[in-house]
Write a structure and sequence with these properties.
Number of helices: 6
Strand content: under 5%
Distance between the termini: 33 Å
Order of helices and strands: HHHHHH
Structural class: mainly alpha
Number of domains: 1
Oligomer: single chain
Helix content: 55-70%
Low-confidence stretches: none
Mean pLDDT: 93
Radius of gyration: 15 Å
Length: about 160
Amino acid sequence: MTQVIVIGKALILLVIANSIPVVLNNIFGSRFAHAIDCGYRFVDGRPLFGHSKTLRGLAGSMLATALCAPLLGIPWSVGALFALSAMAGDLFSSFLKRRFGKAPSSRAIGLDQIPEALLPLLVCRAWLDLSWVGITVCVIIFMVLELSFAPLFYLLRLKNRPY
């Protein structure tokens, strides 16, 4: 039973960390949206991450997750680290997508979900007391939730694309 509660808390942190940048984009649009890669291009001539990965999203994710973590009995610092790791996973997937020639916000099932879920779970595993099975279950549930709710978020105009 304890691992079920831990998985639930981890999923809540994943949802907060990964949804706040989208929420902030809906609220502010392009205001305060400074690209993390500052427009730099990699040696292949493509953007490093792309214009949709912003400092606003990173900071907002870290702040929101740090504020919500204590409500789950998790130190704020672990919440901030969790969000930072989730955003690093998201940047990793964006980096790979740019190398494959995919546009920002384009769909890549698995690559869009796994790094941003797996990395924070691995980094914060000890603090969350997550088992390896728990990590696997969290990643699978997060992936299913993200893929299942994306069309609804599009209909609600929370996302620009139905995936």
